[in-house]
Amino acid sequence: MREAVQVGLCCLLICTGCRPSAPASATRAGGTVATGADSVTAPAAERSGNTERVVAGVGVGQRSRSLDNRSGPVVEPLKSLVATKERLAFDVQLKHAMDLYRATHGRLPQSHDAFMTQIVAFNKIKLPVLPEGHNYLFDPQRGELMVERPVR
Fold first, then answer.
1. What is the spatial distance between Cα 150 and Cα 39, in angstroms, rounded to a whole number?
2. pLDDT reported for residue 139
3. Is the dihedral of CA 77, 81, 84, 86 positive or negative?
4. Distance between CA 99 and CA 85 in Å, rounded?
5. Higher pLDDT pick, 79 / 69
6. Residues in contact with 136: Cβ distance below 8 Å, sequence separation at least 6, in sequence order
7. Going along the chain, which residue ranges are E strands?
8. What is the rounded distance in angstroms from the CA atom of residue 22 to the CA atom of residue 52?
């Protein structure tokens, strides 16, 4: 019994890490931490009216946003799990599918609808569910998936 508790504690320490993690909403797709001012001044953010566009990455999903203000030994591994799933969707699956499309067609899709059908649906990529009022939008000029959200 004692050995099982020790193994469990070791697993818990490995999952949570030794240093405090940055909030999931403050982590960008590249893994760097963004400050509150970065979402307004970064080149990845564009404003139009009362909405802004940011590059889709870790922290944009509804599940990661719901864990922002919580912490503890149970929540930290959950935050890591959600962030890992989002990172896999955006940085691995989506990037690979876009590379394959570019290699096959010599270009990226020319519209949002083409992107969603020919890349996301065709490759069966499950994008994270966005909070209410947020929408995915493909920018063909930049070749990036963006999230259009209300200005905070």
1. 12
2. 94
3. negative
4. 20
5. 79
6. 56, 112, 116, 127, 130, 145, 146, 147, 148
7. 46-48, 51-55, 135-139, 144-150
8. 22
